[in-house]
Amino acid sequence: MRDKKRLPFVVATALIASLSAAFTLQPGKITVYLAGDSTMANKAISARPETGWGMPFNAFFDTTVRVDNKAKNGRSTKSFIDEGIWKSITDSLHTGDYVLIQFGHNDEVPTKTTYTPKADYQANLERMIKETRDKGANPILITPVARRSFDGTGNVKDTHEEYAAIVRQVASAQQVPLIDLDKESMELIQKFGPDDSKMLFNYVKPGENPNYPNGQSDNTHFSELGARKMAEIVLKDIKTLNLELASRIVVSHLGIK
């Protein structure tokens, strides 16, 4: 008899628990925009196995995240803005979105039409930060990823030293999360060493791939392995920075804690 009296209470408790779970607020859906150059960009089939690190990056998030890779080959902060690519991002931004900003490869070369003097490079980064924040979104600055370049003693050379320093200075002054991909990718390349580090980059032997019948020795752009390794560095740092975005990373895919 006592059990029969308790039955309605048990049922009611279970119903309340079920309703509570149903109405628990789930994280809202957001978009993560990638703004950068060829080291980050999506690649055409005709360019493979060259792979931008933004390509594997989107595979590590849950269903609340959409990654929109706006990075383009050959772009600097200057040309990215001048061509309206940056505006296409700011026009689409919503509160809670993220913008990962990585430039420098094409800004720092004086012989290129995309050359951006240091003062302009700094101003462009500051503009991107402001316009992202104006939309209630979250900017993240990333130093330019390292090239595969060794000195005569087998040590990796910092080919982005001056422009990477500007990114760090802007991040500090503007209190923006910083991912020091220049430093961390240099460490990774050094760990692989002068020979094995070729596996991280778009090195193809003659006759090995129809896209590169004469072979390819590219010390700037990544292989699939290299792109994944760079994406993993960025994802690891998002977690280390304890950003809200970190809660949306599917850890089982990444293998980090």
From TrEMBL:
Protein's UniProt keywords contain Signal: yes
Signal sequence annotation: 1-22
Keywords: Hydrolase, Signal
Single GO molecular function: hydrolase activity, acting on ester bonds
The UniProt record lists the keyword Hydrolase: yes
InterPro entries from the UniProt entry: RhgT-like (IPR037459), SGNH_hydro (IPR013830), SGNH_hydro_sf (IPR036514)
Residues of the SGNH hydrolase-type esterase domain: 36-228
Record Pfam families: Lipase_GDSL_2
Family in the record: Belongs to the 'GDSL' lipolytic enzyme family.
Protein name (database record): Lysophospholipase L1-like esterase
Organism: Mucilaginibacter yixingensis
